[in-house]
Amino acid sequence: VPTGDLAALAVLNLLIVGSVALLYREWLALSFDPVFAEARNLPVRALHLGLLCLIAITVVLLMRVVGLLLVMALLTIPPALAGRWVRDLRAMMAVSVGLGVGFTIAGLWLSWWLDLTPGATIILVAGAVYLLVSMAGRARPRSATGSGSG
Questions:
Q1: Of 122, 85, 124, 115, which is closest to residue 100 (Cα–Cα)?
Q2: From first to last of its 150 residues, what are the pLDDT tens digits of the chain?
Q3: Residue 49: CB partners within 8 Å, gap ≥ 6?
Q4: Pairwise CA distance, residues 12 & 98, whole Å
């Protein structure tokens, strides 16, 4: 990975974390209820465009660093898993980041140990964990009343 890309990634990371810290409540309101956000006199269009720009820049830069498949996997699988376990957005963001780091470390370790391609191995680890969690969720016993709605 070129040094320039890593420097740009570091600057982007600071920009994203700073933006989320400064605009967390506004983006939360916008994400869940744009009509409420507009009623609160928030600049809905500007906030929406800002968020989309940050996402687009992130995807483009990360595609240069790690590749499209890994970007898509790490932008979807960790939040999908976090959404199964927590309902608070801050907690979901923290759990997603932790899962992404865990999948990356586990995938890199496995790829080194088994002499495999790192990106594909990271995706394989994330997908396997998602599959296992999904299967475990379906294998839960029915409620004690036997109605099956639990």
A1: 122
A2: 678 878 888 888 898 889 988 998 898 888 888 898 899 899 999 999 998 988 888 788 778 777 888 888 988 999 999 999 998 888 998 999 999 999 999 999 999 999 998 888 999 999 999 999 999 877 655 555 555 554
A3: none
A4: 19
Q: Which residue in this structure is represented by tokens 């744009």?
A: 34
Q: How far apart are CA 26 and CA 45, in angstroms?
A: 12
Residue 2 tokens read as: 């070129």
Sequence-separated (6 or more) residues with CB below 8 Å from residue 127: 73, 77
Rounded Cα distance between 12 and 15, Å, is 5
The pTM of the full predicted model, rounded to 2 decimals, is 0.67
